[in-house]
Every structure is written in C-alpha cells, then in structure tokens.
Amino acid sequence: MKNNKRIETEEQLLQVLEEFFCDVTEDEPIENIESELRDLGYDLAKLEKKGKEIVDLHIANSPLNWRNKAKKEIEIAKANLDKARIHEDKELDRKSLIDEIRAVLLSLGNKNSNFAPAHFRNFETASDNDLLSMLEQLKYLTSDQTNGEGE
Amino acid sequence: MSYPTLMADRLINDLGILDKADLLRLEEIAWVRGVLVEDSELDGAEARLVIAKGRGVITITTDIQDQRRRFSIAHELGHFEMHRGIQELSLCLNQDIREINSKTYNNKPKLELEANEFASALLMPNIFFAPLCIKEEPSLSYISELSNTFMTSLTSTALRYVQLCNEPVVIILSKNNKIHWFQGSPDFERLREDLNLFIELDSKLDSNSLETRIFQGSSNPIKKRRTKASNWFTSGDFDKTATVSEHSIAMPNYDAALSLVWVDEELDEDYSDASEE
Fold first, then answer.
1. What stretches of B61-149 adopt beta strand conformation (E)?
2. Residue A1 domain-assigned?
3. pTM, full prediction
4. Which residue of A49, A147, B139, B155 is 20 to 30 Å from B229, comparing CA positions?
C-alpha cells in the first residue's frame, strides 16, 4: 500500500480527488483509474459513498439549490404582485379594464410578437373581477420585478 | 412515450428530482420554471394562466380541494411548458381539467388533453410511480395508498395506475348507475381487442352491481368481490361463466362510483373448453 492518505475531512477528500484527477487524462479508461485508486490504498466503495454524501450535503444546503431559494423568492414575488394591485379607489369600469388589458397586450405585441394579443382572444367574456385580476397580473408580469428579487 | 409525458419527465430531470418528496413542492417547481401560483377567487374558471414576457401567473380558485388544486396547477404548468408559444392566456374550466384522457373524451381540445396528460405525468412521474404499479396486486385500496403518497385524487391515481400496471385491469366510472367512462391498462386493451370485449357506455348497471349497493349506503368505503365478467362486458368471445375481481368505491360528491375490474382469470372461451376436455 503506497501513499494511503487517511481522509478525515471534506477538504481532505476534495484535495485528494483534485490532485488525483490532475494526473488523469480524459480518455483514461475507468478500469485504470479504479486500479490506481486501489493501488493507492483507497476502498472504492467507501470512497464513492463518502463522495456522494458530501456532494448531496452540499447540494442540499446550497443557496443555489432551487429547493432553498424558491420559497423566499416566491414571497418576494407575491409582494411584488401585490404592488401591482389596482387600488379600490381607482374605479375602473368594464370598458376601461378591457382597454387597459388591450393596451398592455398591444405593448407586448409590439415588443415581442405581433401575435401576442391574438393569444388572449375572448378574454373580454371574463367577469369584471377576473378582468381586474388579469390586468394586475399582466402589469406584474410586464414589470421588471418578476424574478423574485427585491428592489 | 407521448409528448406531454416526455416534457414532464424532462422537467423532473432538469430539476434533479430524485426523491418523490420534492413533488410536494409544486409551487416551488412552478416558480423555478417561471410561474407564480396565486390562490384567488375566480368567477369564470377553475384555473387561469396568464403569460407575458416568458413568465406566467397561475391563478387557482380558492374553493378547491388540495388534490384537485395540485392537479390544476400541474395542468396550467403543462400549458406553460408546452403551449406558451401558442396561447398566452389559458382559462381552464372545471371540465377542461380532467383526470381522464380516455378516447371517450377525445372531443376535448387537444391542448387541454395534453395539459391533463402532462399533469398526470408530473404528479406521478414514471421514475417513482411505475415501479409501484407492479409491486402489489391491483386493488383500489392500494391505489388509495398511492393517492395519499402522491397527494393526488383517487381518480387521477387510478388512471395513472392503469397506464403503468402490467395486469389486465380497467377503471370504470359509473354515474347515476350507468357506465360513464372507462380506461384499461395496455394488457386489458390487448385482451379487449383479442376477445372483442365490449363495455357499453351509458348502459344501466344491473341491480345487483356493487355500484347499486354502494349508492344504497355502506360503512366499508371499498367493496371487493368476484363477479361475472358479463356484468361488465356486454358482449365478446368470452366464457360467460368466467368471473373477474371487482373493487368499487362510492364518490358521493360526484354521485358516482369508481370501479377497478381485474381480469385475473382466463376469459377465453377456448381456454374453458380446453380445460373441460
């Protein structure tokens, strides 16, 4: 057994792996790599288990993991959607609601696609309440605050 | 594999979902795909998707059960994933968001059928659900367990189950004591074709059927019995004395009953002739 380093910490494991893979070329057969690790005195099954544990732990705790960041971002997004709410004192009749929605859709059509307004066809049949919430959501979506980041 | 199932599987793969517990984070899944879910009163629809600038908001009406809510979110997410180039607004009515994708309902718009199939494949993905469908004998009790695990309705779970199970089983919904729709497993459909089994829609169930007895009240939610195959199959080249296993449960909210019929014995006339000789 040569150079059998005892791995106690994650840092040691990563260091050993880094050193090891610096010497391995991409086309090196996996059997050779396994054989070399065995020659160095490592138990491959244990090494794999330990490596997986470390990777899983870091993924689970990573702030970049969607499981960790989504909840917070959703809270912020909901607050941003609330900002797009139309105040009750601003009375909008049905015609004004439809005109405003059309205006937003038209702006989308101009910027992104000439067909966008067509996709919202028949929205006029919705109730006043549904039109109002639709307008609020469109305003939120067309604002720059849809990514769940605070101001 | 169908396009909606492929898209649902791709989403599961993209998000690195390896544990079915992640499936319970449906709002978070929607969010990382670019869609915010909001619960709000809706007058004209059960669920709505509004898309602009490549992001979306799903609105789910407030008076809805948890499992139905999850299916509706997944349905709208399906529209977002698959149809956002085609339609930027989707107002989905109760009848659009159906767990059944049977040929019986092929008059529904194609996009709605695709969204339903996506929802089913997302909430009960192949990777987790398929192995469970071959683990135990078919039964409604087992399907009920699966529906609790995946937080899906009994009907949607049963329908997904028959898609993936390797036994000849058929799920039948009876309403007002008449067969409303049915969906068979691939093995059942092969058998149906081989033996010309005919299940007559809208046919009145016989007075001794489990549905009839279920509607008359029962303390045990799931009833199981052996019954003549001819109670379900109106005609076909099968031995008329053959029996099948039948499990039924009442769905009082819909004035309906859900049955699982498992062909666990040979139905073939030739087979019974041969065994008699």
1. 89-92
2. no
3. 0.80
4. B155
- Kindly give the residue spans of alpha helices, DSSP state H, lying in B57-209: 66-83, 110-123, 126-133, 140-150, 154-164, 186-194
Nearest CA to CA, how far is A50 from chain B (Å)? 19
Judging by beta carbons within 10 Å of its beta carbon (0-12, 13-18, 19+), is residue B10 exposed, middle or buried?
Answer: exposed
Total Cβ atoms within 10 A of residue A27: 5
State how far the alpha carbon of B162 is from the alpha carbons of A53, A78, B134, B171, in Å.
Answer: 37, 39, 10, 7
B256 band by pLDDT with thresholds 50, 70 and 90: confident
Minimal Cβ distance to B41: which of A126, A129, A148: A129
Mean of all residue pLDDT scores within chain B: 85
Residue B184 confidence (pLDDT): 94
Domain count, chain A: 2
Q: How many domains does chain B have?
A: 2
Q: Are residues B104 and B208 in the same domain?
A: no
Residue B91: predicted pLDDT: 60
| B164 near A CB under 8 A | no
A70 and A135, same structural domain?
A: yes
Residue of B134 and B212 predicted with greater confidence: B134
